[in-house]
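step: validate -> pass
step: tokenize input -> pass
step: predict -> running
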Amino acid sequence: MQNEKFGEKDFQTIIGNLLRYGVWTSLSVAFIGGIVYLIHNGSQIEDYSVFKENDRNIFEVISTVYNGVIQGNGEYLIFFGIILLFLTPVFRVLLSLFSFLLEKDYLYVVITTIVILIIITSISFGFSH
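step: predict -> pass
step: emit ->
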């Protein structure tokens, strides 16, 4: 019996499943959040003539979303679904970095690291002014 190495095809399968299930999970969470939101707020009319700015740092946002999800607030469940949708390709990039490290493909390790740094920078500056 020969030992099979964990190969590129295995990583491609894992990455494909990550993207597929990540999108379906985020869609399901946002859909459930929409139903909960409509059950509790379906009769209210939203006033879109006034812009409500939420100028908070990322840690406050994560804390607020976490507390809202724990309480079963539909609005925060929708927001959590959107966050999951955003994180799906981020996890794909991180998994690709791990794959390139195992393959010892250092050019792609550097490129993927630069992409991760760009993502971190954009998240950091996007939430703090």
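step: describe -> The radius of gyration is 19 Å.
step: cleanup -> pass
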